[in-house]
Structures are given as C-alpha cells and as structure tokens.
Amino acid sequence: MAMPAAEIEALIKAALPDAIVEIRDLAGDGDHYQALVTSAAFAGKNRVQQHKLVYEALGGRMGGELHALQLTTAVPN
Amino acid sequence: MSDANERISQIVNANDVVLFMKGTPLFPQCGFSSRAVAILEHCGADFESVDVLQDMEVRQGIKAFSDWPTIPQLYVKGEFVGGSDIMMEMYEAGELQQLLAEKVGTAN
Which one, A13, A16, A47, B86, has least CB within 10 Å? Predict the structure, then answer.
C-alpha cells in the first residue's frame, strides 16, 4: 500500500505544473505523509476546492493506495 | 439517488453538526478522526457522530456524497466543511469557531 514521496510529488506536478510541493514522510514507512502544496491554481478557491484539486491530481489513490496524507494548500505570495 | 445517498442526506440535514468518523468520540479508531473530535471539543461544539466502521454503506457512500476521498468529514447545517486538515487550519485561524458560532451558536 505504500507509495514513494517522489511519486506523489510527480503526480501533483503533472496536474499543477507550477506547484511547489514539500513532502515529509511522517513515520518513515512510505505510508504516512504530510504535504504542503503551493500553487497559483488555488487562487480564488476555498480550502475544500483546493484540496480537491490535489486529490484529483492523485487520481483516486487518496483514501486507497495512499492512506495518510496530511495536506496543507497555499497560494504563492 | 441511491439509498446511501438518501440516508446520508437525512443525517446531515437532521443534525446541525455531524462528524463522520472511524470509531466513536470516546474511542476513535484513526488518528485523523481523533484529531477531528479533539478540534470540535476544543470549539465547545455539540456534535453528532457517525461511526462509518459500523456501516459499510455509509462508509463508501459518504465519499461519493461529498466527492471527498477520506474520513473524517465534518458537516455543519447540511454543508460539507472539510476533513481534519481543513478543520485544523480553520481552527487555528479562528474560522471554525466563527462558523460554529454563526451557524449553530454553540461554540465558545
């Protein structure tokens, strides 16, 4: 069920090319991550819509293959 | 609408604040659900909880209902607010307390 951080980052960047993605492997098991995603695509969207963009980028893996991703989204300054 | 959708719709409309979670507020079965409960308790909110582990139909249905892939999920006055990450962000910004106070009037 584990998923490498590089793969998560690649999927997010494929959908949101300008995204700055910072990922931490919280438990060191390739299964519990924390991600901060910064992208101009989030501008004007509420938090739910922002998170949905990231979940869409992950193409259905969230909640399945990828169990735990603590997600924070931000718009670049 | 499927049966699951109809049931979920009834639950979120019948309760001002409802948290779909894994386990119960006293015995959460997942770190994210535990965090969501703690946040609501800090807000002083009265809330209903639904243990999705006891109900496979709701467990699957809730993801389609809100087009949101994970649990926990918080609803206030029938509206999807977010999962535990969004709850935490809103709590830290004081927005969740404000939302609860405005919509339900139970927050501290």
Answer: A13
